[in-house]
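User: I'll paste a sequence; please echo it back and then give the predicted structure.

Assistant: Echoing your sequence first, then the prediction.
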Amino acid sequence: MSGGEVAGIIVAVFWAILVSFLALALVRLAQTLKETTRLVAEVTEQAVPLLSDASATVRSANTQLARVDSIAADVQEVTANASALSSTVSTAFGGPLVKVAAFGYGVRRAIGRKQAPEPEPRRTVIVGKTLPSARWGGRRNRGSKG
């Protein structure tokens, strides 16, 4: 055997090893692609019902939001009506009620003054001098006048 033949056999063995490794890699890649295809099919089978359920939920939520919007509009209208009624009642009864209350207060004061007559001012006489009468704004009488 010559040197060229030995070199050819060595190159052929290396090519056989290389092809074996490439074949093994391709087989594993094919298995990985097959598993990925199966996984995608399972996810698709589960995702389609989930998407239809989510779509039904969104439709239901939109219906409920429409109802809430209608209720909010009604509440706003009732609030506006209550405000208008309150201002009307305040305008209609506020002025006369204040006048009646003031009149009642005046009557109470007038009756209170007529029932308790004011004492006549006392004069203290010291031999030869006359002292002025006590002032109404003294310490004991501050709260009684008013």
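Strands lie at 125-126, 129-130. Helices lie at 3-115.
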